[in-house]
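Q: May I have one protein plus its fold?
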Amino acid sequence: MELRHLRCFLAVAEELHFARAAERLHIEQSPLSRAIKELEEDVGMPLFARTTRSTRLTRAGKLFLEHVPRVFAALEQARGSVKAAASGYHGQLRIALSDGITPSRLPALLAQCRQDEPEVDIRLFEVPLSQQIRGLHDDLYDVGFAQSDEVGEGVLAEPVWHDPLMVAVPSRHPLMVHQRIPLDEVLRYPLVLCDPLVNEGHARQVARVLRMVDREPLVAEQVASFDLMMALVSAGFALGLAGASQITASREPGIVARPLAGRSPMLTTYLLRMGIDPSETLARFVQRIQSTDVPENSRPTSPRRPAPPEETEP
């Protein structure tokens, strides 16, 4: 089995069309078909069910597809490590990011890392939560940040940052009469929420809050990024639900952050890593996070029950 076989497989698996895959790889269709046949002989199973009208993955092909992208990811990381060493770096920290991590804290943390250990090469990977968890198990990432502690066996999830969940409201919206908006009032209007396939942990935390009221939310749109969420809120398309710092970081005009009435729920960001003894570089990174000062209204009174924010308008 050679890398060219895997590249051919990946192209056909993603295109589900041999002619388009061959065009994408800049080769003729005949050598592509031959490469797939060689690969199938090597694994001992057909990977594609092909007819004159369609091409689809077999069950074996679907299982194989779960592993092939990780091969290329590991190869790319190996190349990055060699380049980093050639550039004078003496260590590497691979950080996976999921769920649109709180923007106000990550830059400060990375800047501190650069200041404390400039010889350590820091590499960032924006991936969905499920991919982050697989990557931690496969040693593609050293550590990660996500807004979920439902990470399965073998992965540690430590709460590190807490951000008040706020309502992003257009400045001329009727709900602006409220300094703290009741949740049942929020649910009278369309919402733009994060896509749970892209921001899985964030979507879970918001869904738990929405279930506190016996009213089905009217979801106007699900988006992959907070930038698009804020753009739709600014346009008056819907209300948004996001962390206070995410709304504050938005450059869209005409958006006001309002807290929810009562005990304001918190969005919790977790540090994810494997439950084994960390490397010295990773241990120092974790210690740096644990010693980072955070705003008082973001500090939890316990690992699971964050304290409410002060009774002031952000």
Observations:
- The longest strand covers residues 155-170.
